[in-house]
Design goal:
four-stranded antiparallel β-sheet; about 230 residues; Jelly Rolls; DNA-binding; 11 strands; alpha+beta; about 45% helix; homodimer
Amino acid sequence: MRTGEKPEIARLPLFREMDEAKRERVFAGSFLQVFPPQLTLFEAGQHPDFLHVLVDGLVELSASSGDRDTTMRIVEPVTSFILAAVVNDLPYLMTARTLEASRILLVPAALVRELINQDTALMQATMHELALAYRGLVRALVDMKTRQSAERLGNYLLRQQARRQEGGLIQLQAEKRLLASLLGMTPENLSRAFSVLSNHGVRVEGSNITIADHEALSAFAHPDKIPV
Amino acid sequence: MRTGEKPEIARLPLFREMDEAKRERVFAGSFLQVFPPQLTLFEAGQHPDFLHVLVDGLVELSASSGDRDTTMRIVEPVTSFILAAVVNDLPYLMTARTLEASRILLVPAALVRELINQDTALMQATMHELALAYRGLVRALVDMKTRQSAERLGNYLLRQQARRQEGGLIQLQAEKRLLASLLGMTPENLSRAFSVLSNHGVRVEGSNITIADHEALSAFAHPDKIPV
DNA sequence: CGAACCCTTGATGGCGATCAAACGCCGTGG
DNA sequence: CCACGGCGTTTGATCGCCATCAAGGGTTCG
């Protein structure tokens, strides 16, 4: 692979603490590949051949049961994804497709598992990563079970704002229809949810969202109180 | 702690492969305690002091946002729970309370983290456990987002049957109101969901459920196709 | 024996899905 | 360069699933 993006990947929590030589083996054994938009990278049910690291672009993870599908996650760079399937060597539960042209580092799953067993720091990082991902899913499930749609949208906006800098301006990185699916509603109802939030401190201009009144939005959305 | 339940605990995936001497340290540093029914063991937001292993009894894990709560999991023996919070040393996201009188092994969180870092087999087991738990939550979230209530109940019954022996008889271990909350519905609607399923191969007699026609129920509930 | 409480069944209401149509944006092709 | 067509978004109307409210029957426990 080219050297340009190595530092950024090496800075990921997953690889940060591991042995330098072993990290080189990760890079040496991997492929950095460019994919066009709207391309399916893998499908749920397939055997996991690679750990994926999104270096640049945008990826959707979705899942389905019966004839309905739902967006599970929108992956932004630089992040690894589908770690759990690789660790357990069990079929993917989600389908991945690019939303934009994307550069993705493909680390052979067997190599990942081998290095995990050789490098304690990597194993520990994997363990922590999984534990954090687990917590994220617990929150997502609670969100879905206890809040109605406009509240979920409000909380999503609050979280997005927190993840970025201060200022209250949020740029939606994906289409609204995708955000709707991520939040477990239809595009029509997302639209209506935005208009509900306009009475609670949120201003919408296309994909530019402004949280004008953080207080009001928080009061409406009842965000999680437990930190991290 | 007494010796009677050691073998059963040692057989858990989490402790099974680890160094014998280290496992003795787990037992030596832990407390096996008996709790009455309806007792809160810990609350969401608290700092995790113990990894819990339910040896006997029944425990509910629940979570809330704002004024609504929801059952996240019903823990049956012999199982460890809240591993993720202990590993990350981050506040519990869920509240635990006993449903029946329960015997629980309390393993100090600091000890768990110390031994994980000393024993590769334990760390690996923890990693696998977390990855499996992650997959379980992915399925739960997809379930909630893509299926309606009677389908969720149908799938729950199919999964329960698969986890136990053949025969089609399922005994609900907890109250129906709890099952309702676990499945993200009200007790009233659980009742109605059961009566819907009576047209699809399910027979209900109190807390004894029989899957009389596995085919019919599967056709109705669209169970997950991806194994494990 | 009475008082809770759980479960069930019925009636009503609200949230969100579906159906439908209009608008705007963007890319393509004439 | 403009016209057209496709698609995403928005808004309105209707429908259906599920929550809520209400009441009655059964069981358990004091």
